[in-house]
């Protein structure tokens, strides 16, 4: 790792320590105020550092879940994105620089933009509009990023400290998705049979580490047939498939792995809508943050520390048979090669296989690998 790169990553870690995300599940008294959502008034409180709001109700309502806070005067709660909540007549998050913004124009509103995000092969004007919206969602230094992970991926992370390369999201854009059912739209890297789902969370070190998964750069992913794909299809608009939300997607640059920053966390979301931090990463070790027993990760003992065996310092970019990619694992004779720009044609030429959404790899002879220029 170069000195400049190390400095950027250290600054990002320091920023996260100065302005950490507020834990979503706190038992301390809430600052409840009256807000408006979908034309109705509700008692509410900021959630996840203001990225979302908890709405409360004394009576059962559609989509409201039982309140996990025992003794609360409001037995039911629902979490919604801050952009959907009005406070004093304006969106509750309007003053936050992370707020997703839509250009003002006749006939252009959030629902219109959401429909565009679900439309592949956009006309140039529509593409330009979505690009403007995405610009307001660009990850900044210290931005909290999140990636859904399966139980098997989480178990591997406890041994190898690498942020899984590929698709990820700003925490700000998805904080309101706090149940396994709601998070199923985040790429499909969930196990629907489980009453919980997992995510890796970290602080972005450099905006250049992330790219938009849009055509033409990542057009090959949009053409992948279902037989060669893991998770949900890639639309190429830069947004996830969703019938209700605008969810900007990001990919790590060239789909490469990133070094894991200090302070990264492995968290779980349960069917009751409660978020629990399971482990925190620092000093090449995952430290347990809970003794929570509602989450079962095969091969992982919740509540026990895990020493990382291998730490990624920086992605190694290589070329194999004229094709660009990264080296994600290796021994003396063989290397695990990951495609930087997957497409059906690249899969036919290389024989690479889908590992997870957007990630395609294969073992190749190290003698056939050359450093990328």
Strand residue percentage: 25-35%
Number of helices: 7
User: What's the helical proportion of residues?
Assistant: 10-25%
Structural class: alpha+beta
Runs in which pLDDT lies below 50 for 5 or more consecutive residues are 1-8, 10-26
Give your account of this protein's structure.
This protein is α+β, with helices and mostly antiparallel strands. The protein folds into 3 domains: 3-91, no CATH class; 115-311, no CATH class; 316-371, no CATH class. The protein has 7 helices and 25 strands. The strands form 4 sheets. It has a 9-stranded antiparallel sheet with strand order 12-13-10-8-11-15-16-17-18. A hairpin with a 2-residue loop joins strand 1 and strand 2 (40-47). The radius of gyration is 21 Å and the shape is globular. The two termini are 17 Å apart. Residues 1-8 and 10-26 have low confidence and may be disordered. Residues 1-28 are annotated as: Disordered. Residues 12-24 have a biased composition (Low complexity).
């Amino acid at each position: 790792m170069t000195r400049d790169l190390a400095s950027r990553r250290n600054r990002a870690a320091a920023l996260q320590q100065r302005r950490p995300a507020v834990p979503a599940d706190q038992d301390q008294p809430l600052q409840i105020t009256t807000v408006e959502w979908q034309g109705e008034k509700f008692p509410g409180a900021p959630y996840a550092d203001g990225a979302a709001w908890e709405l409360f109700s004394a009576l059962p309502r559609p989509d409201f879940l039982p309140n996990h806070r025992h003794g609360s005067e409001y037995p039911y709660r629902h979490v919604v994105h801050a952009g959907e909540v009005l406070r004093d007549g304006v969106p509750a998050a309007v003053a936050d620089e992370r707020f997703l913004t839509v250009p003002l124009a006749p006939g252009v509103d959030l629902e219109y933009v959401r429909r565009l995000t679900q439309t592949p092969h956009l006309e140039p004007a529509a593409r330009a509009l979505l690009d403007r919206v995405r610009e307001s969602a660009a990850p900044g230094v210290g931005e909290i990023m999140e990636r859904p992970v399966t139980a098997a991926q989480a178990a591997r992370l406890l041994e190898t400290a690498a942020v899984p390369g590929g698709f990820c999201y700003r925490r700000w854009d998805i904080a309101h998705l706090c149940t396994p059912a709601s998070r199923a739209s985040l790429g499909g890297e969930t196990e629907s049979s489980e009453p919980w789902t997992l995510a890796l969370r970290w602080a972005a070190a450099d905006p250049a580490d992330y790219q938009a998964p849009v055509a033409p750069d990542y057009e090959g992913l949009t053409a992948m047939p279902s037989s060669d794909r893991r998770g949900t299809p890639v639309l190429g608009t830069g947004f996830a498939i969703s019938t209700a939300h605008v969810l900007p997607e990001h990919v790590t640059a060239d789909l490469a792995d990133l070094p894991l920053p200090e302070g990264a966390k492995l968290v779980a979301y349960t069917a009751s809508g409660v978020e629990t931090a399971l482990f925190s990463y620092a000093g090449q070790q995952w430290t347990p943050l809970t003794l929570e027993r509602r989450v079962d990760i095969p091969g992982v003992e919740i509540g026990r520390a895990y020493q990382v065996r291998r730490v990624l310092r920086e992605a190694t970019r290589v070329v194999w048979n004229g094709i660009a990619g990264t080296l994600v694992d290796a021994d003396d004779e063989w290397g695990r090669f990951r495609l930087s720009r997957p497409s059906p044609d690249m899969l036919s030429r290389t024989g690479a296989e889908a590992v997870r959404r957007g990630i395609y790899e294969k073992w190749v002879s190290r003698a056939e690998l050359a450093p990328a220029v």
